[in-house]
Amino acid sequence: MNKPAIYITRQLPESVIAPYRNILDIEMWSKSEQPVDASTLMDKAQQVDGLVTMLSDQVSSELLGTAKGLKAVANLAVGFDNIDLTSAEENEVVVTNTPDVLTETTADLTFALMLATARRIVEAADYVRNDEWKNWAPYLLAGTDVHHKTIGIVGMGRIGEAVAQRAKGFNMNILYHNRSRNTEAEQALQANYATFEELLIESDYVVCLAPYTEETHEMFNTQAFQKMKDTAIFINASRGKNVDEEALYDALVAKEIKAAGVDVYRQEPIRASHPLLSLDNVVALPHIGSSSEETRTAMIQLCLDNLIELFNGNVAKTPVTEKKRLST
Ligand code: 8YV
């Protein structure tokens, strides 16, 4: 029997892929410096049984409608806002994602970003490297404490809970806002539910971990930043489109909030000319929430395991669309 053919839209390490070559006929995008272009992705989608895609690949209704042999799309991310799910369902293409394996790693990065922003770690490291450190001064690069402060987590899913766990270790007071109450987090992590407005008003650290949906589109806007304390630090480690970036810039310049740590942007990658990068009180990262070697490997393996399960006629381990087997 022929092996199912799959196309992977980035170059991934052969050491991780190799064991799967016995079961799957795997082709990968060949250029390490640039992402797959839309027309190659469209062509490949028409030739294979499965795709492994990244958040930056648009899996559109046009692609799904024309790729008649395509049975499954395994997205290398917990999010799937790059995939037209309605069209996937209509075309009976099963979509999978990579939840759980990236939870702790993304929570580590979120917390690191919060600490880096509060304690001005990037500025301080540059200060030493640029030979600016001439004298000791009592308030030299003085930051803001994290411990014993109030953290407000917007989006109390798996990653939100893992961030709350870290916050607990820092003796923080934990508020959260979510579509629905998370009673488990309330009990296990002493997290207190707050309306979005209450959370904005009361938090020292406002941390956005909500997935991107129509409801969350630019929920962090001028009004939201105005409600925050002028000492508040804003962290975004979920999706750029949850934030009105102009409003964030204006709030930072007007000192309506103190600082921001950002891992995600409306349009990625950003360029050095992005307004937020002109501000010293911004720590900007290149969307590396889940980027540890261990987690990236686990994510790739989960994508490929999902495809194998599906091609074997089983339900995928982590399906996004309705749990169904591929019709054989
Ligand atoms: C992605 C992410 O894994 O999982 C998500 O939803 O945002 C990231 O961790 C990364 O962008 C690769 O697609």
Descriptive overview:
With about 325 residues, this protein is α/β, with parallel strands linked by helices. It folds into 2 domains: about 5-100 and about 290-310, 3-Layer(aba) Sandwich (Rossmann fold); about 105-285, NAD(P)-binding Rossmann-like Domain (Rossmann fold). The chain has 12 helices and 12 strands. Strands 8-7-6-9-10-11-12 form a 7-stranded parallel sheet, sandwiched between helices. Helix 5 (about 105-120) crosses helix 7 (about 160-170). Bound molecules: 2-keto-D-gluconic acid. 2-keto-D-gluconic acid binds near residues 55, 76, 77, 78 and 289. It holds the Pfam family 2-Hacid_dh_C. This is 2-ketogluconate reductase. GO terms for molecular function: glyoxylate reductase (NADPH) activity; hydroxypyruvate reductase [NAD(P)H] activity; NAD binding.
What is this structure's SSE topology?
Elements: E1 5-8, H1 14-17, E2 25-28, H2 38-45, E3 50-53, H3 61-66, E4 72-75, H4 85-90, E5 94-96, H5 103-118, H6 121-129, E6 150-154, H7 158-169, E7 173-177, H8 183-189, E8 191-193, H9 196-202, E9 205-208, H10 222-227, E10 233-236, H11 245-253, E11 259-262, E12 282-284, H12 293-311
Parallel strand pairs: 1-2, 1-3, 3-4, 4-5, 6-7, 6-9, 7-8, 9-10, 10-11, 11-12
Helix pairs in contact: 5-7
The site of 2-keto-D-gluconic acid has 10 residues, from loops.
Rg, nearest Å: 22 Å
Name the overall outline. globular
Proportion of residues in helical segments: 25-40%
The largest sheet is:
7 strands, parallel
Q: Secondary-structure element sequence?
A: EHEHEHEHEHHEHEHEHEHEHEEH
Query: What is the averaged pLDDT score?
Result: 97
